[in-house]
Specification:
By secondary structure, the chain is mostly helical. It is built from 9 helices and no strands. It has one domain. The radius of gyration is 16 Å and the shape is globular. The chain starts with a helix and ends with a helix.
């Protein structure tokens, strides 16, 4: 539960900083401008699609570890929408934006470490990345970079095709892609002490 809360907090802070959105949240972010659903609901639907792809790749309908990701997806959606309503700050100041971005990276990484440590149920996009890594025989980090890049390309294409412009791309997109993983690694190393 803490992992879900912290990752959701990181996602909301990244969105609220108005410097761009993290790659993994870019598709729900753009879709929020297109369809009349909340960012949390769209994140939940995006997670459900990731679960579906996992089941297809494994050719299993009743894989319990993957099916347990369904309630996780619903919780993520609800927590994101709740935090969006509760968190307010003036993003017109660069210092506030940078602080929100730094906190976003910290809390996203902290939440990921909590979920990794439990080794119970994964965040659905991370579960898909793990299965893609296993199926292709490629290193997990390399697949994660490709997955994030695919999310950015899809969201950019959706924005250009439907809205006439790319939405959500900015310095936070790049900084999140570079530093969330590194922060997770740092936190995991510190937790071993």
């Amino acid at each position: 539960m803490l992992g879900i809360f912290f990752v959701s907090l990181g996602i909301v802070l990244c969105k609220k900083c108005n410097l761009g959105i993290s790659p993994i949240s870019s598709i729900p972010f753009v879709l929020e401008e297109i369809v009349p659903l909340s960012f949390g609901t769209l994140t939940m639907l995006f997670h459900l699609v990731n679960i579906l792809f996992q089941l297809i790749l494994l050719r299993e309908v009743w894989n319990l570890r993957i099916l347990l990701q369904i309630p996780v997806a619903f919780l993520f959606g609800q927590v994101i929408d709740l935090l969006q309503r509760l968190i307010h700050f003036d993003s017109g100041f660069l210092a506030a934006q940078v602080t929100a971005l730094i906190l976003s990276i910290f809390f996203t990484a902290l939440g990921m470490v909590c979920m990794i440590r439990m080794d119970l149920v994964q965040n659905p996009p991370d579960g898909l990345v793990k299965i893609l890594s296993q199926k292709t025989g490629r290193e997990l980090g390399r697949i994660k970079i490709l997955y994030d890049a695919a999310c950015v390309v899809i969201s950019a294409a959706l924005g250009l095709a439907i809205l006439g412009e790319m939405r959500g791309m900015g310095i936070a997109t790049v900084v999140s892609a570079v530093f969330v993983g590194r922060t997770v690694t740092w936190m995991k190393e510190k937790a071993k002490l």
